[in-house]
Write a structure and sequence with these properties.
single chain, about 180 residues, alpha+beta, Immunoglobulin-like, 4-stranded antiparallel β-sheet, 3 helices, 7 strands, globular
C-alpha cells in the first residue's frame, strides 16, 4: 500500500514538472517569435495605428533610463493584448505583456472600462536602458471580438535623453514624433 501511494505521489510530481516544462517551452517559443518578428520588421512603423501611444523617460539614480510606453485611446476593440519592447542596445530580457498563458489578458474597447473583466483604458509597459540615446522597437498584437483574427502593429521611438532635456521638452508622444520627423 505504501509503495502504491509513493508511486502515485511520484507520478503526480513528474506530471506536474512536465506540464511546467511544456508551459515554459510554449512561453519561450512565443517570446522568441515576438523578438524575431520585431527584429525582422527592421524598425518599419505601421502606417495606421488604431490607438494613441506615447513615451516617457526618466533618469534613475543608478544612471539607467527608465522608459514607459503607454498605449490608450483605442479606435477599435482590442482583445487579449500582447505587447513587447525591444531595445537592441540593452539586450537581455525585453519587457512584455500578455505572452504568458496564465496571466490576465487585458483588452481595450473604445469608450469602455471594466477593470474586473480586464477592460482597461490603457496599458503601460516599462523597461530600462543603460544608454541616454536609444531606439525602442514596439510590437502590439490583439485579437478581434470573436478571438479569431489577430492584428499586429509596429512602431518605434528614437530617444536622446540629453537632447530632450537640453531643449526642455516634455515626454515624446506619437504627434510630437511625427512633427519631429517632418522638420
Amino acid at each position: 500500500m505504501r509503495k502504491l501511494i509513493l508511486l502515485l505521489v511520484l507520478t503526480l510530481c513528474v506530471s506536474a514538472c512536465s506540464d511546467r516544462n511544456t508551459k515554459d517551452k510554449e512561453f519561450q517559443n512565443t517570446y522568441n517569435s515576438f523578438v524575431d518578428s520585431i527584429l525582422d520588421n527592421n524598425g518599419a512603423d505601421t502606417a495606421e495605428i488604431p490607438f494613441a501611444h506615447h513615451l516617457e523617460v526618466t533618469k534613475e539614480s543608478s544612471g539607467e533610463y527608465r522608459y514607459a510606453i503607454t498605449i490608450d485611446d483605442p479606435k477599435v476593440a482590442m482583445y487579449h493584448i500582447q505587447m513587447m519592447v525591444v531595445d537592441k542596445a540593452a539586450g537581455g530580457q525585453y519587457p512584455f505583456l500578455g505572452l504568458l498563458n496564465d496571466e490576465e489578458m487585458f483588452s481595450m474597447i473604445p469608450n469602455q472600462e471594466n477593470k474586473e473583466k480586464y477592460f482597461v483604458k490603457g496599458v503601460v509597459l516599462e523597461g530600462l536602458s543603460p544608454n541616454p540615446k536609444f531606439t525602442l522597437y514596439v510590437q502590439v498584437s490583439w485579437k478581434d471580438y470573436a478571438q479569431i483574427n489577430t492584428s499586429t502593429v509596429f512602431f518605434s521611438y528614437t530617444y536622446d535623453y540629453e537632447k530632450q532635456h537640453a531643449d526642455n521638452k516634455q515626454p515624446v508622444n506619437d504627434k510630437e514624433k511625427e512633427n519631429a520627423e517632418t522638420e
